[in-house]
Design goal:
The chain is mainly β. About 0% of the residues lie in helices and about 65% in strands. The protein contains no helices and 11 strands. The strands form 2 sheets. Strands 2, 4, 5, 6, 9, 10 and 11 form a 7-stranded mixed β-sheet that branches. The chain has a 4-stranded antiparallel β-sheet with strand order 1-3-8-7, with no helix packed on it. A hairpin with a 6-residue loop joins strand 4 and strand 5.
Length: about 120
């Protein structure tokens, strides 16, 4: 199995910045993409940003120009730098990864896994 552990959420004032981190661990053979989604109360989960290992980067429309995703492939870690935060960015942010696992000589996947989420609150 793979575990995704997020960190870096919290309370920030409008216009402020936060940096989220997510580390993937487990019997990982390959990581195909890592990224972030978010879910605000009463709303559906939406794309924030994803970055593929051999493919491009995608951003949600309202995040373009304010959020930046990056990865440290050697550490199976993905970061999300969030600038110019607004109250509308308040949500639980979930890390997501698509991986292939290796267990007892066999490969399994690709599988999509999710972290437990980290709360981001933008408020004065």
């Amino acid at each position: 199995q793979v575990q995704l552990v997020e960190s870096g959420g919290g309370l920030v004032q409008p216009g402020g910045s936060l940096r989220l981190s997510c580390v993937a661990s487990g019997n990982i053979f390959a990581v195909h993409y890592m990224g972030w989604y978010r879910q605000a109360p009463g709303k559906e989960r939406e794309l924030v940003a994803t970055q593929g290992t051999n493919s491009g980067t995608r951003y949600g429309d309202s995040m373009k120009g304010r959020f930046t995703i990056s990865r440290d492939n050697a550490k199976n870690t993905v970061y999300l730098q969030m600038n110019s935060l607004q109250s509308e960015d308040t949500a639980v942010y979930f890390c997501s990864a698509m991986v292939t696992l290796r267990w007892q000589g066999k490969l399994e996947g690709p599988l999509t896994s999710w972290g437990q989420g980290t709360q981001v609150t933008v408020s004065s």
